[in-house]
């Protein structure tokens, strides 16, 4: 389907107006379907993987703290120290990837609301305005991956996991 602007320039009168209405209805339906699809996908992912994500968070926090403890106490073998450092980087990267993309989902859901806000509503039909208003209200609460399960997947939660790991490291160090 060609862009509306190119049709408006090359077409004439009623044909352009008719095409504009069809394109407008198509865009409205497409936006609504995508919004519903993303919300359903997010809910399905959260319900399917919530136990795995909780286990991943707990294991990652423990692994990172134990690995940091091993690095701080390793004095003899440089190779062993290198292995612990590589493992630590892998664990932190794995956790960061979960949190980064969860954060991206939240940011993108918030940008949809902003995009709807910036539309010139005076050019839209009443039906489109109603649909956009429903989507606008729905997006007032951003999509957050695993919200309320244990913690949300955001960059802030990544920092919190590192803080918990450091706290566990201090407990291990002080108890030794």
Automatic annotation (TrEMBL):
<keyword id="KW-0812">Transmembrane</keyword>
<dbReference type="GO" id="GO:0005886">
    <property type="term" value="C:plasma membrane"/>
</dbReference>
<dbReference type="InterPro" id="IPR004117">
    <property type="entry name" value="7tm6_olfct_rcpt"/>
</dbReference>
<keyword id="KW-0552">Olfaction</keyword>
<keyword id="KW-0716">Sensory transduction</keyword>
<keyword id="KW-1133">Transmembrane helix</keyword>
<keyword id="KW-0807">Transducer</keyword>
<keyword id="KW-0472">Membrane</keyword>
<dbReference type="GO" id="GO:0005549">
    <property type="term" value="F:odorant binding"/>
</dbReference>
<feature type="transmembrane region" description="Helical">
    <location>
        <begin position="81"/>
        <end position="103"/>
    </location>
</feature>
<protein>
    <submittedName>
        <fullName>Odorant receptor 92a</fullName>
    </submittedName>
</protein>
<keyword id="KW-1003">Cell membrane</keyword>
<dbReference type="GO" id="GO:0007165">
    <property type="term" value="P:signal transduction"/>
</dbReference>
<dbReference type="Pfam" id="PF02949">
    <property type="entry name" value="7tm_6"/>
</dbReference>
<dbReference type="GO" id="GO:0004984">
    <property type="term" value="F:olfactory receptor activity"/>
</dbReference>
<keyword id="KW-0675">Receptor</keyword>
């Amino acid at each position: 389907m060609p862009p509306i602007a190119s049709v408006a320039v090359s077409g004439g009168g009623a044909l352009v107006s008719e095409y504009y209405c069809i394109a407008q209805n198509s865009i409205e339906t497409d936006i609504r379907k995508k919004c519903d699809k993303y919300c359903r996908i997010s809910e399905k992912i959260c319900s399917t993987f919530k136990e795995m994500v909780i286990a991943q968070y707990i294991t990652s926090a423990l692994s990172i703290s134990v690995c940091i403890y091993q690095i701080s106490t390793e004095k003899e073998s440089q190779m062993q120290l290198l292995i612990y450092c590589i493992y630590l980087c892998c664990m932190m990267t794995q956790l960061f990837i979960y949190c980064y993309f969860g954060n991206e989902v939240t940011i993108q859901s918030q940008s949809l609301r902003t995009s709807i806000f910036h539309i010139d509503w005076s050019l839209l039909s009443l039906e489109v305005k109603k649909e956009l208003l429903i989507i606008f209200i729905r997006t007032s609460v951003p999509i957050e991956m695993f919200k309320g399960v244990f913690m949300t997947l955001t960059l802030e939660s990544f920092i919190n996991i590192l803080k918990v790991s450091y706290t566990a490291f201090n407990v291990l160090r002080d108890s030794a």
